[in-house]
Task: structure prediction
Amino acid sequence: MPRRSPAFAEATDLFLALGGVVKRLRHNPLPHQDALHAALHGAAPAPRHVTALLQVASETRIGVSDLADRLGVSLATASQLVTELAEWGLVERSTDDADRRRTFVTVAPAHQETISVLIESRLRPVERTLHRLEPDERAAMKRALVVLAEELDNATREAAR
Result:
């Protein structure tokens, strides 16, 4: 059996560490999970819905175009996500009084508590992790995850050929 390189060993260690994070996210139920599922009327939100919802929850109100920029998606995609979240009753839309073409999104009042608990259970651990790291370590961690996502996309495209 050929000897593995140090980079291969590091990749293995990182893969196992990421697996531990994913395992904990999958197996630790969301607080208020029943309320969230009830709000969704049996629909299963995709990760993109949760990401959009967390972005909306991070502001008092956010414009759909600003949401698209933060998510790195087209305005049409962001509008579709907002429509789906609104159909589930999780967010509300309003029109800007100064510019009727601009739409703002907020978390629906009925779900403020549920969404706050979602933020506490999923984002606060990430926030605490970042707080424990030095600025250069935070930047490296973010960059590494972005590059890893790109490489996973590349692997998926290559496998499809």
